[in-house]
């Protein structure tokens, strides 16, 4: 039996947390849907609900506006839009959830990329009256690019089309046809009314023609344990623990978060970039030693031999190593308003626990994420643009292709002059 097979029950327990990102065009009802989920799962405090009711009444709304639960900034409430990534938390007896409510506006593409980069599932909303629009396709493409394993299309505002099955079926057909051009491993389509609560938490009698699960039931049951890479052992070292006093002065451990794979005491591991090998003596957590470690556990690994290991190094299997290269090709989403990414530009790269400096050797093309057209005439990337670039780093990056490992295949770009994050990249 393989490590991945023996790990299945333990991984299932550890992955009771589901991260999902909402996406869609402006005014499709993302914030309203999240507000409805928070309300129907009884996650709200009484004073929160009273505040929302008061604001809704003060604006003259005929109904309580659930969107006010997530549009927390005053400017968002006044404009009736979402401009920042709002993280919300709720739980049911089956699972805990972290929601990233991302903006729908085209100028906030960078915010949407931020929210989706760590998501297990992308929830894309469309307005049943409008059908698929440019932003729907844009967000679906970005979620596919970011390798979000599961996608749910919510056809919202079904109450405004009299819960018409034909309207839903046409949108489902259009989106499914578009999704075949992308890499979408798992797609589910649900007709809902976030305002009325139809098919959000429980099945709606007003759409008896729909035979699938409610949205919350799908979120509770979608299988995410197998999405983790349990084959390639990757353990970026974040911190070396070596007490200098007390009873544990001879303790030497390497702390970090397991990026992928399964590690057990007795396993042979290699330290990169040095190439020295040893065996795992023990794996410790805040609650004591464990018999195995898998993503996304944070652990401290002790080795049988005293090796020179420091932050930025990586533990892996001797026969299964990441690529070590100073020449990296990546798709980069540019996030800086004031200065574009330029050819020959110099930046800092943060990848796992490693920090390196890099120069842009080539801007191969800028990708139009609406038409998927590649513009090869450009030599820079402006705010919210995505393009393929070649980087040369000052020291080798220990990396995998992003499609195989979202942790070791991703990085952020930092402007050294003011330490601002100006871009995010995925290694191809």
Question: What would your notes on this structure say?
Answer:
The model is unreliable at 1-15 and 73-83 (pLDDT under 50). The protein is an alpha+beta fold. The protein is globular. It has three domains: 3-227, P-loop containing nucleotide triphosphate hydrolases (Rossmann fold), CATH 3.40.50; 235-316, Translation factors (Elongation Factor Tu (Ef-tu), domain 3, Beta Barrel); 323-427, Translation factors (Elongation Factor Tu (Ef-tu), domain 3), CATH 2.40.30.10. It has eight helices and 23 strands. 20% of the residues lie in helices and 33% in strands. The longest helix is centred in the middle third of the chain and has 15 residues, at 165-179. Strands 7, 8, 9, 10, 11, 12, 13 and 14 form an eight-stranded antiparallel sheet that branches. Strands 2-3-1-4-5-6 form a six-stranded mixed sheet, sandwiched between helices. A six-stranded antiparallel beta barrel has the order 15-21-18-17-22-23.
């Amino acid at each position: 039996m393989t490590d991945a097979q023996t790990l299945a029950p333990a991984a299932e327990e550890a992955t009771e947390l589901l991260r999902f990102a909402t996406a869609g065009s402006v005014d499709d009802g993302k914030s309203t849907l999240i507000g409805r989920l928070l309300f129907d799962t009884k996650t709200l405090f009484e004073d929160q609900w009273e505040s929302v009711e008061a604001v809704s009444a003060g604006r003259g709304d005929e109904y309580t506006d659930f969107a006010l639960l997530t549009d927390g900034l005053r400017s968002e409430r006044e404009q009736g839009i979402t401009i920042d990534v709002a993280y919300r938390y709720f739980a049911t007896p089956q699972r805990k959830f972290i929601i990233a409510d991302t903006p729908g506006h085209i100028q906030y593409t960078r915010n949407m990329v931020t929210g989706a980069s760590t998501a297990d599932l992308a929830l894309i909303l469309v307005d049943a009256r409008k059908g698929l629009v440019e932003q729907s396709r844009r967000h679906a493409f970005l979620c596919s690019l970011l390798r979000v394993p599961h996608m749910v299309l919510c056809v919202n505002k079904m109450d405004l089309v009299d819960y018409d099955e034909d309207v839903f079926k046409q949108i489902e057909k259009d989106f499914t046809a578009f999704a075949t051009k992308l890499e979408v491993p798992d797609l589910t389509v649900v007709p809902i009314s976030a305002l009325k609560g139809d098919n959000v938490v429980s099945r709606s009698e007003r759409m008896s023609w729909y035979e699938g699960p409610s949205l919350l039931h799908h979120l509770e049951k979608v299988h995410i344990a197998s999405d983790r890479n349990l084959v390639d052992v990757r353990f970026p070292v974040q911190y070396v623990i070596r007490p200098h006093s007390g009873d544990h002065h001879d303790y030497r451990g390497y702390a970090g978060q397991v990026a992928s794979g399964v590690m057990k005491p007795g396993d042979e591991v290699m330290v990169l970039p040095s190439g020295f090998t040893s065996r795992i003596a023990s794996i410790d957590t805040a609650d004591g030693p464990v018999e195995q470690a898998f993503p996304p556990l944070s652990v401290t690994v002790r080795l049988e031999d005293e090796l020179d290991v420091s932050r930025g190094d990586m533990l892996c299997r001797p026969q299964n190593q990441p690529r070590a290269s100073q020449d990296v090709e990546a798709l980069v989403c540019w996030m800086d308003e004031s200065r574009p990414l330029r050819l020959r530009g110099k930046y800092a790269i943060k990848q796992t626990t490693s920090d390196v400096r890099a120069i842009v050797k080539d801007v191969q093309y800028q990708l139009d994420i609406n038409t998927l057209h590649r513009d090869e005439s450009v030599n820079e990337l402006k705010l919210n643009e995505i393009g393929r670039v070649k980087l040369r780093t000052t020291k080798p990056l220990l990396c995998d292709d992003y499609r195989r490992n979202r942790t070791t295949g991703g990085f952020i770009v930092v402007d050294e002059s003011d330490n601002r994050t100006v871009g995010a990249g995925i290694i191809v």
